[in-house]
Amino acid sequence: MTICARIRYYTCHRLIAAVVISCLVTTSVLLVPLVSLLSRSIDASQVKYGYKLTYKTWLDHLCPRSQIRNAPAQQLKWEPPSAQTIFFMQTSCANALTAREACAVESFAHHHPDRPILLLMTSLTINHTNPVMQTLLQLPNFRAAYLDLDVVFSEEPLRTWHRDKNWLFVEKRAGMALSDASRSEILRRYGGTYTDLDAIALRPLPNGTNWLAEFYGGRVTAALSSFLPGHSLFQRVVDAIPRVFDPYACCSIGPDLVTAEMRHLCPDTFSSIVTEDLQGPAVCSDITVLPISNFYPINYEMGPRGFSQLLRSGTGQEFLKNTNAYSLHLFSSLTARDVLYLGGGSILEEVAKKYCPKVFKIQRSISDVI
């Protein structure tokens, strides 16, 4: 073989090798994202957020504006409630409460000075410069702690449900889904008394435990409830959450699920309890169902016309004189944007002035609205 022939021979083989390598590289580049996409398609939430997200990743998705990396020394720590604790949950990632939310917390601390009051937050930090938070932190029986979802959901079946991040499928409802699931799991594991952040206490809660409230539409709700740890109701609720969770529905793992499991616990009596006009407590299995009027003195079903009573001038004193309710529910999802100018003597103003006096005073010093 001549020198020229040898050059042509080796050049040809090099070209063939280069083409083969190029094809292999191109194929791998195309296949990797394709395989990744196919694996992610197993779960809709995984397409968007990836599979088996780490702690930091889910925190970044839930709380994208979190400043935890800038203030590591001030991070809150997880603290579970006890059976004696009255606890709240803030799942919006805010590092401070609104004046109305702070009023709710102070009102329960005011009526229960001998019980621990615990605020669990998905934010790892508190805004210590916020006046209403400064006021709450001075209450002797109040504490704020981190709502550590990895700890709360560390047991099955919610461990897998949390790992797969199905609650992030509809971002605007993620906080609501987390609140419903966390409340049920915390009550199951630790017990305690839970109340929503938009309920202002008007008097001390009922003695005893294993109670919840009647709700609208023939349902019951755990939005204000008290249970011993390990109760069968919340074991049933927690077991059902992965199966019935609907990210597009507001109440699939809230009052709808609690109601469904209550029906299983007392099938013969539950329908009569929620369809009759309850004037006093009713018993379902070992659970006490308290009348809707005990916690919802403003009629939710009346919509804006009903909630306008909260802000109407001159109605507060009459309400306080006549109500026998344990709490006043504000339904913040419907009323949060309604501004109340102080000085008119409305129901909300008079209730706040009487039962959260410290928050009311500080709020009035910085603003004429609440």
Written overview of the protein:
By secondary structure, the chain is of the alpha/beta class. It has one domain: Spore Coat Polysaccharide Biosynthesis Protein SpsA, Chain A, CATH 3.90.550. Helix content is 45%, strand content 12%. It is built from 16 helices and ten strands. Strands 3-2-1-4-7-6-9-8 form an eight-stranded mixed sheet, with helices on both faces. Strand 8 and strand 9 form a beta hairpin. 36% of the residues are buried. Belongs to the glycosyltransferase 32 family. Pfam families: Gb3_synth, Gly_transf_sug. The chain crosses the membrane at residues 15-38. It comes from Penaeus vannamei (Whiteleg shrimp). GO terms for molecular function: hexosyltransferase activity.
Strand runs, count: 10
* Tally of individual helices: 16
Give the class from helix and strand content and strand pairing.
alpha/beta
- Indicate the CATH architecture: Alpha-Beta Complex
Pfam family, one: Gb3_synth
Organism: Penaeus vannamei (Whiteleg shrimp)
Keywords: Glycosyltransferase, Golgi apparatus, Membrane, Transferase, Transmembrane, Transmembrane helix
Transmembrane segments: 15-38
